[in-house]
Amino acid sequence: MFYRILADIIVIIHLAWILFLILGAFPGSKYRTIKFLHVSGLVFASVIQIFDWYCPFTHLEVWLRSKHDPSLTYKGSFIIHYMEKIIYVEIPANLIFTLTILLVLFNAWFYLGKRRA
């Protein structure tokens, strides 16, 4: 039970991290520390996508779930696994890669545009 609770907490943290990567430019435009964390996170997410790696949160969650009940583990990406459960459609890895690149480009435009203003 303890491992399952920890795994669920990791899922919540993972979701919060993804939301931070999507929306972090807004507070990042006001606070330098948040901007540094946000840009660093975007670089890390890009590297993960380029090399087709999985996020460390995914590995941690799968490990914790395997400690609780090995039948609860899954293979593959955190996003694909949980998005499939929400919309019942498989999300291709190349779509996640494309969305990551678009997110990075949007944030670059956002930060550079703020600098000019």
Name the assembly state: single chain
Write down the overall mean pLDDT: 85
Please tell me how large the radius of gyration is.
16 Å
Total of helices: 6
Q: Which of globular, elongated, flat, extended, rod-shaped describes the shape? A: elongated
Question: What does this 3D model show about the protein?
Answer:
With 117 residues, this protein is mainly α. 79% of the residues lie in helices and 0% in strands. It is built from six helices and no strands. The chain has helices at 2-23, 25-28, 32-50, 56-68, 78-87, 93-116. The model has no long low-confidence stretch (mean pLDDT 85).
Topology:
Blueprint: H1 2-23, H2 25-28, H3 32-50, H4 56-68, H5 78-87, H6 93-116
Helix pairs in contact: 1-4, 3-6
Give me a quick take on this structure.
The protein has 117 residues and is an all-alpha fold. It contains six helices and no strands.
Structural descriptors:
6 helices; elongated; 79% helix; mainly alpha; single chain
